[in-house]
Automatic annotation (TrEMBL):
Keywords: ATP-binding, Nucleotide-binding. GO terms for cellular component: plasma membrane. Residues 279-364 form the Type II secretion system protein GspE N-terminal domain. This is Bacterial type II secretion system protein E domain-containing protein. It comes from the Bacteria. CDD domains: PulE-GspE-like. It holds the Pfam family T2SSE. Belongs to the GSP E family. The keyword Nucleotide-binding applies. GO terms for molecular function: ATP binding; ATP hydrolysis activity. Residues 398-775 form the Bacterial type II secretion system protein E domain. The keyword Cytoplasm does not apply.
Amino acid sequence: MSAYGYQNLNIGLPEIPLWAGVYSEKLDQGEINVLLNTQEELQGRLISFNVLEKHLILNDNHSGQDKRINFSEIGFLNFKEKNNLDLDTVDPVFKGAGIELPRWNETYEIHLNNGHVIDGEMKAYKIDDAGIHIFKTIENTLMRYFIPHSSVKRSKLGNKIGDELLSKNIVSAKHISEALHDQTVHKTKKIGEYLLDQNVLDEEALEKVLSIQQEIEKNQKINLKIGDLLVKEKVTTKKQFEYALRKQNKKKNAKIGDILVDKGYTSDVNIHRVLSSKHGVPFIMIDAFKVNPDVIKLIPFETAKEYSAFPLDIVNDRLLVTFSDPLDKNAIEAIRSLTKKDIEIATSPSKNIEKAFASFYGSAVIKCNFENLEKFHFDSISIAAINETSIGNSLELSNAEPVVHLVENIITDAIAQGVSAIHIRPGCEAVDLLYRNNNTLSKKCSFHVALLDLIVSRIKTIGRMDASEKRRPQDGVGSIKVNSKEISLKISVLPTVDGESVVIKLLSASAGLRSICELGCNEQDAELFIDLLNRDSGLILIVGPAGSGKTTTLYAALTELVNKNLKLMSVENSIEGHIKGVEQLQINSIPDCTFPKALHSALRHDPDAIMLGENLDAETGEMALESALNGRLVLGALYANGASDAIARLLALGVDPVKLSSTLLAVFSQRIVKINCEDCLALEEVAPNIRQSLQVDAEEKFYVGVGCDSCNGAGTKESMLVYELLPISDKLKALIADKGDVNDFRKQAMAEGVVPLKLNILEHVRSKKISMQEAYK
């Protein structure tokens, strides 16, 4: 507990872990035994426990008087009362997903200066400025002990991490031995050896500088630091030396667990599971844990990163924070002082914490990543220049840790913000990073053009593209797992005069697999759509402009068919989501494959229903009609502004009108529109040409979201589907067979009660849901 806490409490004992199943007040009050260094034993009620002044006040049972006892006089004390461990009292947050409580009790053995030995099993322990606090377990009860630092001769709190790993068969004795050897070597390794390792200088140059150092120290009777001399003699730059110094310090402080992980002998997860039980703190995998977003603002990113700590939730007025090092007293105290809250400690692997940073701190993490990458890039160029060698191309560096972290965190941040696409747009002086959300492109940040090749090469690696090819456009697909969800990445790279431009479309497998009812259709239209999907054969067209959600609707239609014991196939240029029960054919992953070739091959596999993920042309349109005539259900896509326009366009492509009239079941025309933010609605100024185009009265009033804090200045918060479902009646079939025009189809559809897409959109405009500008797009 921090200084401000002790000043306000009579009893300043550290809190008992909330996960232990004991109310803390039961162990902080009542009768205690105190063994003094003089072997005298006192019994009584604890009145005060003051860590700052290092004394306690005891109401002595024998004399009835309050006695002040300095910690330096105490051998140890314990509370008499044993408290039952009751897991039913544990807060539900410690029983949820992503959290594991310590799996075994640890042993302890403390030798006191007065000759006493305290030992046994403990649930947990805490060390503060006053001493060691032990939460001793006896059968199914818990008892508190306190041993001042001044009375401790030596102590063993649990097994060493190496012994724990061995006893749990996580690593072998040979692995432990190698790690201990490396740890010893790194602690004694000199800065010159690190400079040699980094190829900043050779042995001859180092020996020359060392001889100069010895000569100066001998003649001038001063101690000259090797780093100052290396820079002075221009053997290294100051930045290169500082880089090597950081490497040295990092290695000198290396822990046995980190070395075992670096060597690949075990995982960081295994190490932290052992640390969890060894130190009596919960183990948490943050990506599976339900984080309370309100607590993130309590700890700034810079502080969280410095201490490798992440806030999770508030439980019983304590801030639950997970640390990569649960024994880092400086980190715990700094966060306690910053938040003015008592800290409930947990532990997580450092990489798991870094992923959480990307998901919850977003922009701050990306800014830090760019700074790290710029420094890494500068160091790489400097080292290559010293050795008069080339750093090669970006292929050699694109898999380096700073590059990998940056690209991964950009993608993670975009996913956390609900972004649909990431754009990297090169310019002559800088590169812009942009996010597309609700069909609006907004700038995230800019970065130096020198970093573009590194970042693009890493993205190509993720998309399984040729990273060495920079002159031709490339498409690729990849995936990333965020918070236990698989996100598909559809990547396009295009060379421009200023460098390679990149677009990454983010496609959540779970978000893409909606049912027809979840698309946003009304109940009547959803039932009609599902009824059409139950037909044995025919063609259903999904139409709309680019970015209107056609693929989502096609996937929803396929999902409805999955449980019908049918052979289902799809032919797609790039798969945007995997559908269980559907054989999906991805064209761009097959050399020299075209859409017609792929469709021919798929049809030979005897599907009952087939989805065509690319927009139909004359050739594939005819193939789709033939497939429908041969008894298959065909789902196809087409660029068109409305259902009637889609029919007219197919006829214009030259498909057989009789075949089309015989097979076409329905046309589903759709658009995605942005919904006005209700908190900042204002009258919209509508240009005369827009009113004329949409045929609305000059006096009619319309509304638009102008931007506020609630919508982050965007004027919109979310999007919605607007659509037109046109079932093909006998009269429409006759018009199609007679090669009618778009006006004929539209009039007949309206006569049958179908509301055209344009009128459907205007209805939402008049209800203030969307703006006229959005309707006009």
